[in-house]
Amino acid sequence: MSTNDTPPEEPKAPLPPKQDEPATPPRDTAPVPPEAPGQPESPVQPAGAGRSGGPDGAGRQRLAAGLWPPRFSRAQLIVALLLFVLGLGLAIQVRSNSDSGALRGARQEDLVRILDELDGRTQRLEDEKQQLEDQRRELENSSNQAEEARRQTVEKERQLGILAGTVAAQGPGITLRITDPKGQVQSDQLLDTLQELRAAGAEAIQINGVRVVAGSYFSDEGGGIAIDGKKIAQPYEFKVIGKPQDLEPALNIPGGVVQTLEKEQATVAVTRSAKIVVDALRAAKQPDYARSSSS
């Protein structure tokens, strides 16, 4: 076997660089020359640029995440609120200036008319407000409407009964006593006394046990006086319910009832009382033809 038949030696692998020595670049890698100043850098895109999984795609995602949703600090919110308020105030000021400028150029008659319209509108609004409040109270008390209606009906019936003489009454008032020993007092003088008491505010009157109402009449009969056909004897005693401070002065005015009766040599005595009872009653009459319009 000749020496030429020896197998070639296997290439040895290069030894790794030592830790304290820098690794030398491969021989086939040429150094990148520095770019000249003023020349634009050549766009060098790494592999995978432009794809969603590349560095640029990840950067855009981070940028979008940083921009939305927006994050505001407390100072920024306060500044924004102040700017909004300032803008609103300026808008209101500009509008008021324009309105005042329009009013400034108006005539006096127009200004008076505008004020009258404003006053009328204000009054109408106040009336509507009062009506709405009344309706609200009525609705709130709707559960008690039936009871309130019944109570008002009973009270109205009592008042009408007092005026008609069908129910008894009591209250403050006066007692008027007329003594006529010579029989000089006539029915017309008693009628004048009744009218004076009614004008002074008398609400219920009884004379010698006879209830006097709106349809009562006086007449002279057999040397005496009759009320509604019932003859009464002296002394004539009036029981009157009303305000005593008004009834007594009305009888004692100069030239009034007391002086007129005293001229007929009659004796008149007026006594105030905190409680006058008028218990003479009249029978309620059923009308023959009149009917209630609500029925």
Query: Strands of the largest sheet, in order across it?
Result: 3-2-7-1-8
The low-confidence runs, each spanning 5 or more residues with pLDDT under 50, are 36-52
Biggest β-sheet strands, sense, barrel: 5 strands, antiparallel
- Total helices: the number is 7
| Strand residue content | 15-25%
The total of beta strands comes to 8
Distance between the amino and carboxyl termini:
154 Å
* Computed structural class: alpha+beta
Region (Disordered): 1-62
Transmembrane segments: 75-94
Pfam family, one: DUF881
Family: Belongs to the UPF0749 family.
Notable traits:
elongated; DUF881; single chain; 8 strands; three-stranded antiparallel β-sheet; alpha+beta; 295 residues; transmembrane helix; coiled coil; 7 helices
Structure description:
- This protein has 295 residues and is α+β, with helices and mostly antiparallel strands.
- Helices cover 42% and strands 16% of the residues.
- The protein has a five-stranded antiparallel β-sheet. A three-stranded antiparallel β-sheet has the order 4-5-6, covered by helices on one side.
- It is elongated and about 135 Å long.
Q: Could you provide a short overview of the structure?
A:
The N and C termini lie far apart (154 Å).
Topology:
Layout lengths: L54 H13 L6 H31 L3 H33 L4 H20 L4 E11 L7 H13 L4 E4 L2 E3 L5 E4 L2 E4 L2 E3 L3 E6 L2 H8 L5 H7 L3 E12 L17
Antiparallel strand pairs: 1-7, 1-8, 2-3, 2-7, 4-5, 5-6
Protein name: DUF881 domain-containing protein
Family: Belongs to the UPF0749 family.
Keywords: Coiled coil, Membrane, Transmembrane, Transmembrane helix
